[in-house]
């Protein structure tokens, strides 16, 4: 995982140079400017020509996260360069996967389907339909056999991929969509600080997926106590509340999220939170939860985290691994942050249009700092 490889260097760079930035109200147009900057960074970083055309050098296995971010950016801003790069990335996914997609790739195809022009065949949706049908008809146990692969992996990384499979499955109304949802929950309830490398990330991304499919209800997550103790007795409706318990409340990292459930750092001497990965996944989870809950604490946390993500984007569109320590910049992290920013802005923009009609300013937030995200290092076998 890149975080473990790079944290030592990050600890010694920029720690004394970066400080908390006081933010003012952020309107939709400022959000669009920031999204455009990150999208331009991705557009210019894309490989053009050759066998890897449409990918991003060194991050070919994470093309899905980048393409989804660009598609979301286009959906928000209407930027044509972002759309062209997203389509080019989608073409790479179709070629490289041969019809068998990672979770982030399936979600990327869904995002491309959403921005596809009317009146022409939607190749992205067709590819998704084919994928879920082929998995369900596989001789290796169908959907249950396919999803059982994830029981062999770190459950937090499994949750990352399965969450995106779930949202895409519900988008195309796949016959086995409930089996995909059950697979996500089965992995989620195995997540704790001992078994998983990224517990809070998994909680954030699962909250996002289950909110997107409108499943934050009063049903118990682990009714037969087959998972780890952390999840015992909790319901789906409590996921946003659980996520908020891992929010950093004060200091330079206020508004961002911890890495682990115990709020400690796995790497000696490292920070306990403020990473791009947890911030973007938590932002996605909180923004999606706002569609199904009116909890003011969720709204406040979502607004503050939106500001953190806005400020994490450098002038040239790069997004670093950590809020105060900087670190390396990865295209996939920029893609995940774009998704989070665009999701919140699209939701608030719809409300803002109504406000604007009454002559009010469109305001997204009034709060604090920066951060971003991306899961690296997990390559699940492409097996039907």
Task: Explain what you see.
With 384 residues, the chain is mostly helical. It has one domain: Glycosyltransferase (Alpha/alpha barrel). The protein is 52% helix and 3% strand. It is built from 14 helices and four strands. The strands form two sheets. A two-stranded antiparallel sheet has the order 1-4. Strand 2 and strand 3 (326-329) form a beta hairpin. The radius of gyration is 19 Å and the shape is globular.
Write the layout of secondary structure elements.
Elements lengths: L1 H10 L14 E2 H18 L17 H15 L2 H18 L5 H13 L7 H14 L5 H6 L7 H17 L5 H12 L10 H14 L26 H6 L31 H14 L6 H17 L7 E3 L3 E4 L1 H27 L5 E3 L19
Helix pairs in contact: 2-3, 2-14, 3-4, 3-5, 3-14, 4-5, 5-6, 5-8, 8-9, 8-10, 9-10, 10-12, 12-13, 12-14, 13-14
Task: Please describe the structure with a list of short key phrases separated by commas or semicolons.
384 residues; single chain; disordered C terminus; two-stranded antiparallel ribbon; Glycosyltransferase; 4 strands; disordered N terminus; mainly alpha
């Amino acid at each position: 995982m890149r975080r473990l490889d790079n944290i030592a260097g990050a600890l010694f760079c920029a720690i004394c140079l970066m400080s908390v930035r006081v933010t003012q109200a952020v309107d939709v147009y400022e959000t669009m400017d920031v999204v455009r900057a990150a999208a331009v960074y991705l557009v210019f970083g894309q490989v053009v020509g050759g066998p890897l055309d449409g990918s991003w050098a060194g991050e070919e296995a994470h093309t899905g996260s980048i393409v989804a971010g660009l598609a979301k950016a286009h959906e928000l801003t209407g930027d044509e360069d972002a759309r062209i790069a997203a389509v080019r990335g989608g073409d790479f996914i179709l070629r490289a996967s041969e019809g068998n997609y990672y979770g982030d790739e399936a979600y990327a195809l869904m995002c491309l389907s959403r921005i596809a022009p009317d009146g022409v065949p939607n190749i992205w949706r067709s590819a998704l339909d084919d994928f879920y049908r082929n998995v369900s008809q596989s001789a290796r146990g169908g959907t249950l056999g396919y999803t059982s692969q994830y029981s062999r992996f770190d459950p937090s990384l499994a949750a990352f991929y399965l969450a995106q499979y779930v949202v895409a499955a519900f988008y195309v109304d796949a016959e086995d969509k409930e089996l995909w949802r059950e697979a996500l929950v089965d992995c989620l309830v195995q997540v704790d600080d001992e078994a998983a490398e990224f517990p809070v990330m998994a909680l954030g991304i699962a909250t996002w997926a289950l909110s997107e499919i409108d499943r934050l209800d009063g049903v118990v997550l682990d009714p037969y106590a087959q998972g780890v103790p952390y999840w015992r007795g909790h319901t789906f409706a409590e996921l946003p509340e659980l996520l908020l318990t891992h929010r950093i409340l004060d200091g330079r990292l206020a508004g961002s999220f911890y890495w682990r459930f115990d709020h400690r750092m796995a790497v000696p001497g490292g920070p306990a939170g403020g990473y791009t990965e947890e911030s973007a996944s938590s932002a996605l989870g909180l923004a999606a939860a706002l569609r199904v809950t009116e909890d003011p604490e969720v709204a406040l946390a979502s607004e503050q985290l939106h500001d953190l993500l806005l400020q994490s984007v450098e002038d040239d569109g790069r997004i670093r691994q950590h809020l105060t320590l900087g670190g390396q910049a990865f295209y996939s992290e920029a893609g995940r942050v774009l998704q989070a920013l665009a999701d919140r802005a699209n939701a608030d923009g719809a409300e803002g249009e109504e406000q604007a009609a009454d002559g009010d300013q469109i305001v997204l937030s009034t709060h604090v700092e920066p951060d971003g995200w991306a899961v690296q290092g997990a390559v699940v076998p492409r097996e039907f």
